[in-house]
Design goal:
4 domains; DNA primase, PRIM domain; 513 residues; 17 helices; 8-stranded mixed β-sheet
């Protein structure tokens, strides 16, 4: 098999679409501007070869129309990422992940499976790996548990490594954090492709908490999994104090001191421990989940189910992202809300109450209403990071207008003589142009209930059909009274008549009785 064949087989997923990204300038924040688009065509060997040759970078969509996938990825979007430290963590946890550099300098960690598995299950395993690696907030591909394939939804793509494979900026690291050639990457895929059962074994092995923390929030279990900690001791002991207060009641201070001795190296001195205990005594402090280092090891869903976790804190704003803009007219949007795909129009996306109703109807969930400014900020982020998908011309207003114009120009009402222009009929001359009055065209559009364009917008569309050249003037005719006159007309290149001539079959006139 060629390298393109091997890459195509490895990143098998959607059979109806793939992605392309055109990278622009790099901003002050280190992130490259990019135009991301969904192309309604399956990846092919030829397209993949163009990616390898540096002609056009492509992305693959892991989820298929059956909501299954054979591979997934973690997208760690940190531009100054310490790849050496990350590779050490992957090896220590024995995770079957291939560590690739992304185009912005972050990491794409790929998981390859022997068989197709439910996307929801694969996403759960990938989330656990992200938490174990200390990158809880990273993006997970596939981004959806379920896509709305019957409505034209295809999911999201991730940019593939080895674009311009001779001089790649996206490449895979080996165990020594050295760049691999594409041939070695293919070999590594074969070597690291695993059955789903192996992930279950890794889960039970890597999630064994220390005895003191067997029922503590997941972030605390992960932070102390490898033994006593010597970093950020005050923050960590404060969180442990909240846990002790919830679990041990009146004896929480003694348990907190025990944890200080067993979980830190060196332990905090007695004065610092006492100060933390006084703070916890004075106010009902709770877990500081949004602060580091806890945020990077957060598994909110699991924590909510634990006896001494964050509990059910009421309606929380679900994870919202991965906006796909369908470039139809009017626009159509697909948005991921808590792993489920929601179809929206512009008004539903812009207005919170309508968005909430769409979520209720399509996904049986009720996201809480947030402050208007926060919603505007979220919309701005979604639109900035969105992907777009082109649609056939007929799904646009311009395409609908063109189809109606063609119907007008080629219908049976068309004029036989130029004098009939006065009756609102289109007339096609021997030079290959069809002329008509704007009043006649507007009446035809009105009768077809087409009101999307004003008269001025119609004239602009006619100009586009004439390669932006002026396309109006006066036509000399003879009116019904035999007098010469002129009429103001517009013209477009004549449309081909799609009528098919059906041959008339000669029938035998003999009567059979």
């Amino acid at each position: 098999m060629s390298l393109a064949d091997e890459m195509l087989a490895a990143f098998e997923g959607s059979k109806v679409a793939h992605g392309t990204t055109t990278v622009g300038r790099i901003g002050r924040n280190g992130k490259a501007d990019a135009d991301s688009r969904i192309v309604r065509q399956a990846l092919t060997v030829e397209i993949m070869q163009g990616h390898i040759d540096g002609e056009q970078g492509v992305g693959a969509i892991p989820i298929n129309e059956e909501n299954k996938c054979k591979w997934g990825a973690l997208d760690i979007d940190i531009y100054d990422l310490d790849h050496k430290e990350l590779q050490q963590r992957i090896q220590k946890l024995k995770l079957p992940l291939l560590h690739c550099r992304s185009k912005s300098g972050g990491a794409h960690l790929y998981l390859f499976l022997k068989e197709y598995e439910q996307a929801k299950v694969v996403r759960e395993y990938l989330l656990e790996m992200a938490v174990a690696l200390g990158h809880s907030g990273c993006e997970i591909f596939p981004k959806q548990d379920i896509i709305l394939a019957e409505r034209g939804d295809v999911g999201n793509f991730i940019n593939l490594p080895y674009f311009n494979a001779d001089l790649p900026q996206r490449y895979c690291f080996n165990s020594k954090v050295e760049a691999m050639e594409i041939e070695d990457f293919i070999k590594a895929i074969h070597k690291n492709t695993v059955p789903i059962s192996k992930l279950e074994g890794l889960r039970s092995k890597n999630n064994k908490p220390r005895k003191l923390l067997s029922d503590a929030p997941p972030c605390l279990q992960h932070l102390f999994r490898d033994g006593p900690s010597g970093e950020e001791r005050n923050k960590k002991l404060f969180m442990l104090g909240v846990f002790c207060r919830m679990k041990h009641g009146d004896n929480w201070k003694a348990e907190m001191e025990t944890m200080n001795q067993q979980l830190f190296s060196p332990p905090l001195d007695a004065k610092e421990v006492l100060a933390l205990q006084k703070s916890l005594d004075k106010k009902e402090y709770f877990y500081t989940c949004e602060q580091e280092p806890f945020k990077s090891y957060c598994d909110k869903e699991l924590c909510m189910s634990m006896k001494f976790g964050i509990g059910d804190t009421g309606a929380e704003v679900p994870e919202i992202g991965n906006l796909l803009v369908i470039l139809s007219e009017p626009r159509l949007y697909f948005l991921t809300v808590a792993g489920k795909r929601i179809q929206l129009n512009t008004e539903q996306l812009q207005t919170q109450s309508l968005f909430q109703r769409a979520c209720m109807e399509q996904a049986q969930m009720v996201p809480p209403i947030i402050k208007p400014r926060a919603w505007q900020s979220l919309l701005h982020k979604l639109m900035t990071e969105s992907s777009s998908q082109e649609v056939p011309e007929e799904l646009t207003v311009s395409g609908e207008f063109k189809a109606l114009l063609k119907a007008y120009c080629t219908s049976r009402i068309r004029a036989i003589h130029p004098e009939e222009l006065l009756q609102g009929k289109p007339w096609t001359d021997n030079q290959g142009y069809t002329s008509f009055t704007i009043a006649g065209l507007m009446e035809f559009l009105h009768n077809r209930r087409f009101t999307a364009f004003t008269r001025a917008q119609v004239q602009e569309q006619l100009k586009k059909l004439n390669d932006d050249q002026e396309c109006h003037g006066h036509k000399a005719i003879v009116n019904e009274e035999g007098k010469k006159s002129t009429v103001r007309v517009w013209w477009v290149p004549a449309f081909e008549n799609d009528e098919v001539a059906i041959p008339i079959k000669e029938m035998d006139n003999e009567i059979p009785f």
